[in-house]
Amino acid sequence: MTRLRILGVLAGVLLSVSASAQQVSVIKLPELQKRLNRQSDTTYVVNFWATWCAPCVKELPYFDQVNTTYAKQKVKVLLVSMDYASQLEKKVTPFVQKRNLKSEVVLLNETDPNSWIDKVDPKWSGALPFTLIFNNKQQKRAAFEQEFTQRELTTQLQKFLQ
């Protein structure tokens, strides 16, 4: 009886921990396009990355820092995983949870990059990491096919907040 009670308590603890952990939702291109085309005065920082991309992994904490530093301003960070949707539970979600990412994370479930990359940004070759910073109300948009340092990312974001 005692063992069963202990197991029940452990199960409850594990369920509450996983319920509060960062969730990764899977989206398709139309949902992403809707987010990229929002008419608001919020500045969005959208980073396309993958768990297998070393430069992407290296810069992820900088995006999370932006999310924290600018929390009281109209700045929103979206991290878009380019991993396969089949890797969501085995790889992507554990990766996000292990690194304790606070920014919103989505996995883009599109299999043919050639059919949608131009729709995100015509200048994007498809290389990772890739970042968009935009404010649609101000009609400002910048695209970066590069790995950022914390300083470079902050400098680029500041151009939108002046």
Commentary on this structure:
With 162 residues, this protein is an alpha/beta fold. The protein has one domain (23-161): Glutaredoxin (3-Layer(aba) Sandwich), CATH 3.40.30.10. It has helices spanning 2-20, 29-36, 54-69, 88-98, 117-120, 150-161; strands spanning 24-27, 43-49, 75-81, 104-108, 130-135, 140-144. Strands 1-4-3-2-5-6 form a 6-stranded mixed β-sheet. α3 (54-69) links the parallel β2 (43-49) and β3 (75-81). The longest helix has 19 residues, at 2-20. It starts with a helix and ends with a helix.
Question: What is the topology?
Answer:
Layout: H1 2-20, E1 24-27, H2 29-36, E2 43-49, H3 54-69, E3 75-81, H4 88-98, E4 104-108, H5 117-120, E5 130-135, E6 140-144, H6 150-161
Parallel strand pairs: 1-4, 2-3, 3-4
Antiparallel strand pairs: 2-5, 5-6
List keywords for this structure.
6 helices; Glutaredoxin; alpha/beta; 162 residues; single chain
